[in-house]
Amino acid sequence: MSALTEITSEADFSSHLSSLSPTALVVLYFHTPWAAPCAQMGAVLSALASQYPATTPPTISFVSINAEELPDISEEYDVSAVPFVVCLRSGQILESISGSDAVKVRDAVERHAGRGHAAGASPMDAVRTAIPPPLSAVPREDGPITATQPPVSASQAPPADSANATAVASAPGLTPEQSKEALFARLEQLVKAASVMLFMKGTPSSPQCGFSRQLVGILRERSVKYGFFNILADEDVRQGLKEYAEWPTFPQLWVNGELVGGLDIVREEINADPDFLNEFSVNKPTAA
Ligand SMILES: N[C@@H](CCC(=O)N[C@@H](CS)C(=O)NCC(=O)O)C(=O)O
């Protein structure tokens, strides 16, 4: 599966771009380590990347760029605030999205990758209304790149094959209520990072618990396209999601931003409806 590639220098960026075929969709994700909304968007993009198989040559590439460390690249793509996502093909900007609107970013990527839904009824319509307004990004004049939420205390590189971009939700100076609010805002985005999201112990290629392994097997059998999040790599998400979901265990399967349940519930759903999840199968032809 695809993953976010961290760009370390301008030379690295140029060589990465030139290694791709001209028809590849490139998704540039500009962030700064101190902006909390970037941690959310990082996790959303990692989960999104995990839905696309890694092919040779790649047909899609997700690239992560520290906007402050690489100002020339940020300038080139008019990055005025973080998080900022640019969809690019053959050097042409197809679309830029400023702010932390997970659904907008996912729609744009799927549309440009050619896997999107036609205009009109989309499974995402149900959740669109529930999404909070995008983070209002502060336009940059000549000053630094800005974001309108308080900085987080730490960020940590995600494990190579995991969808996690972890950040501690409880920033110093926040009350427990504010920390919880920030964590729940992050979870609200995360559960919608993909139409089907699996919160599991470990990763699909290396599940760390039998229940998670079995649920991965069910999704695989049905060729379901899904994003995943390894809760073992993020204690805040592990504990917070139990409360947010009002569900005490993992795995947790979420569909269109709604909790389905754990392994037992998914099995019950399949027994009741053999077509359960089939609409998310990669084998299902895309509606015209
Ligand atoms: N019968 C449950 C099994 C899941 C389960 O019991 N998970 C436990 C052990 S892997 C769990 O997540 N405990 C809470 C934790 O580890 O934080 C299901 O249907 O999903």
Automatic annotation (TrEMBL):
Ranges annotated as biased composition (Low complexity): 147-172
InterPro entries: Glutaredoxin (IPR002109), GRX_PICOT-like (IPR033658), Monothiol_GRX-rel (IPR004480), Thioredoxin-like_sf (IPR036249), Thioredoxin_domain (IPR013766)
GO terms under cellular component: cytosol; nucleus
Boundaries of every Glutaredoxin domain copy: 196-260
Keyword Cell wall biogenesis/degradation: no
Pfam families, per the entry: Glutaredoxin (PF00462), Thioredoxin (PF00085)
Keyword Cytoplasm found: no
Biological process (GO), any one: intracellular iron ion homeostasis
GO molecular function: 2 iron, 2 sulfur cluster binding; disulfide oxidoreductase activity; metal ion binding
Assigned keywords, A-Z: Iron, Iron-sulfur, Metal-binding
Ranges of residues in domain Thioredoxin: 7-102
SUPFAM superfamilies registered for this protein in UniProt: Thioredoxin-like (SSF52833)
Region listing for Disordered, in residue ranges: 114-172
Protein family per UniProt: Belongs to the glutaredoxin family. Monothiol subfamily.
Function: Monothiol glutaredoxin involved in the biogenesis of iron-sulfur clusters. Binds one iron-sulfur cluster per dimer. The iron-sulfur cluster is bound between subunits, and is complexed by a bound glutathione and a cysteine residue from each subunit.
Name listed for the protein in its UniProt record: Uncharacterized protein
Organism: Penicillium arizonense
Lineage: Eukaryota, Fungi, Dikarya, Ascomycota, Pezizomycotina
